[in-house]
Design goal:
about 100 residues; mainly beta; two-stranded antiparallel sheet
Amino acid sequence: GVGWPKCDPCRPGTAVPFGNASCSMCPAGTFSHDQATSCTPCFSGKHSTFGSEDCHLCPSGTYLGGPGQNCTSCPPFHWSQPGALSCTPFAAGAWHRDRV
């Protein structure tokens, strides 16, 4: 019979579901490591880009609106810690030199 000459493992950032013939890039908001059969969703407060092998916290001054989304800048007069899911308004009488 005819068979495959060899099997190549999927690289990080890709996965091959059972029964498929080739690896596919993981969508944004997911990741994979070596030889994955599926892409894993990022944990809360973390994001990834298309074909990522890891997820990262959104930096301070940004927030993650939901799974699969990119980090979004906080609106004027708001702030956030790394990995935030929302932004917090500045306290009365507070300001930040980069946000005026």
